Amino acid sequence: MGRKFQKKQKVQQLEIVPLDENPPLPPQRSSDEAVPKKEKWVNKQRVLVFAARGISHRDRHLMRDIKTLMPHHRPESKMERSKTLSVVNEMCEMKHCNKAMLFEGRRKRDLYMWVSNTSGATGPSAKFLIENIHTMAELKMTGNCLRGSRPLLSFDSKFDELPHLKLLKELFVQTYSVPNHHPKSQPFVDHVFTFTYLDNRIWFRNFQILSEDGGLSEVGPRYVMNPVKIFDGSFTGKTIWENPDYVSPAKQRQLLKKAAKDKYVNRVEQKVKQEATRPVQAYEGIENEELFEDDDPIETAKILAAIAKKKKQDNATKTPKAALTKKIKEKQLKAVKEVIEQKKAKAAKRVKKV
C-alpha cells in the first residue's frame, strides 16, 4: 500500500505593527464611561501606632482607643525592648508612614509616649510621661461620636506663647488630625480634641459636639501628657528642650517611701521621750498639805502661825518695789551722762585738729 503525501500549507507570518503611543480619542464618549476626576485625597498622612513589650493592660486599652479615634493609623506588632529606638524609622519606611506614636512601658507601672516625625528621619520627636489614664470602657461617658469621623483640634492660648509648645502644637496637628477625604474616614465633624496646658502638663480630652451653640459631652479617653524632652531628630539627635520640673515616677516613689520611714522614726522617738520624761510620782504636793495630816486644831493653828511668821521674814528681807525702780533710774541716768561726756570729748578733739 502506498502512502499519500500531502503538501504542508505555509503559515503566513503577521507583521508586527508598533503601537501608537498617543492613540486618537474617540469622537464621542458613551454615557457609561466614568468622567475622570481629580484626586481629592492629597494629604496622605499615615501614623504608625504601636507599643513596645512591657506595657500593662490599661496602657494597651488606651492605645486601642487612640487607634479607634485615628482612622489614618497603621497597626504594628509589639517591638522588642532589646531593639534601639532608631529602628522605628525603618519600620515607618516599610509601612509607608511619616509619623510614629510609640508607647513604652517601664516596670509595668509607668507609660511613656513618643510622638515623632519620621519622614526622612528629620524629626522632631517628643517624649511624654502619660499620667491619669482613663479609657473609654472605664469612663462610660454619655458622649458618642461616629467611628472614623474627622475631629476638630482645640489648643490652649499658651500654645501660641511658649516656643516649645508651638513646636508641639504643630506636631499634634500633623499627628492627630485626620486627612481630608481619607478612604477610612467619614465626611463628618462631630467631635473635638482639646489640648489644655495646665500645671506644666498637657491635658487631653475628647468631646462630642452636641449643638452649634457649643454644647459638649465627653466621650473619652482622657490622659495627661507630662513633656520630658524634645529631640532634634526622629528618636535621635540633640536635645532641643528639656523639662526642668520633671521628676521621674521612680524618684517620686522613693521620696514617698522615705517620708513614710521618717514618720516611723518620729513615732519611735516620741515613745522613747515619753518613757524618759514619765513622772515618778502621780502628782506633786500641794501647798500647805501638812495642814491636812493632823486632825488636832491646836496643832493646825501653830502650823499656820509658823507659816505666817516665815512669810513676814521673807518680805522683810526683800527690797521694796519703789527702791528697785529708783536704783534702775539712777543707773540709766549714769549711763546717759557717760554717753554725753564721750560725745563732748570727741567733738573737742575734732576742734583741736582743725
Automatic annotation (TrEMBL):
Q: Which UniProt keywords apply?
A: Nucleus, Ribosome biogenesis
One GO BP on record is: rRNA processing
UniProt domain Brix: residue ranges: 45-236
Q: Where is this region: Disordered?
A: 1-38
Q: Which residues cross the membrane?
A: none
PANTHER family listed in its UniProt record: RIBOSOME BIOGENESIS PROTEIN BRIX, RIBOSOME BIOGENESIS PROTEIN BRX1 HOMOLOG
* Protein's recorded name: Ribosome biogenesis protein BRX1 homolog
